[in-house]
Amino acid sequence: MQMVLNLKLSAEFRSLQVSVIVALTVSQDLALRSPDKVWLITQWQNGNTKFKSSPERYMSHRIRQEGRALRNETNNQTKWDQEDNSTRLAERMDEVERWKEVLENTLGDINTEIDALSKSKEEAERALEAKNLNLDVVIENLTLREGRQDIDLVTDQVHEQLLKEVEVIDGSKKALQQKISEAFEQLCLLMEARQQLIFDITNKKEALNIDEVALSLNNNSPNISFKPDPLRIPPGTTTKQQWDMFSRYNKDRADAEMKASTSLREAISATIKHVSLNKNLIPSLFRT
Question: Does residue 188 contact residue 261 with C-beta atoms inside 8 Å?
Fold first, then answer.
């Protein structure tokens, strides 16, 4: 029992020795790390003042101020540029809308003129069919009169008038056929001008849809990403003057074709009226 007690005391003594040795080592290490020189408060203040007034610190401060000013200037310029571009885009949309309305009105007018000319053409075709019937009647009369025998086969006034009637009807048919052909050609020109108007109107509607989406974009719009070479000019791009001339040409061409169609309808009406005066004279001839 005494031996066990002695062993415990011996172990505690050795642990105390180790602790003392460690404490002495740490104290020596701290002593070695102590600064060689201790600064006075005035020296410390002078050092800070010197650091605050150093060229590097001044340059850093100036760069930060210039960067802040540049950032503010860029933000303001970007904001005004966006407002300016939005105003220009809105004005451009108004111009496209005005041209679209003009072309749509012209399209309505040319559709009306196509219907009117088609009716005039049909009227001339009915008049031509009527003249064919008149010609058949005159030819039938001439054929019957050729059946006269001997001395009765006389070239009398009736025969001469029948031949003249054939000549008149044939001339009326040629005049009507000429107007029908002209009406057909004019209808083709009107339809071609109408197709060009439809093409131009369709393109302007598509341009308005694209510009409307562009006008609605802002810094918070989704799906916005950087596009490479944003200032490039796509192939096939036209100038503002070319764009205006193209739409103006389409309108002027449609107006010119409608004017020509109106004159042709008047000529068709006059021709129909003229040939209608050349009525069948056969009954009156046989009564004389």
Answer: no
What pTM value is reported for the model? 0.66
Q: Which residues contact 218 (CB under 8 A, 6 or more apart)?
A: 82
pLDDT above 50 for 4: no
**Is the model's pLDDT at 13 over the cut of 60?**
no
Cβ-Cβ contacts under 8 Å for 139 (sequence gap 6 or more): 166
Mean pLDDT of the chain: 77
- Please give the residue range of the domain that contains residue 204: 89-148+155-216+239-287
Query: What tokens appear for 228 in the block?
Result: 């490479």
List the structure tokens of 117: 């000319």
Q: What sign has the CA pseudo-torsion 67, 68, 69, 73? A: positive
Q: What is the CATH number of the domain that holds 261?
A: 1.20.1260
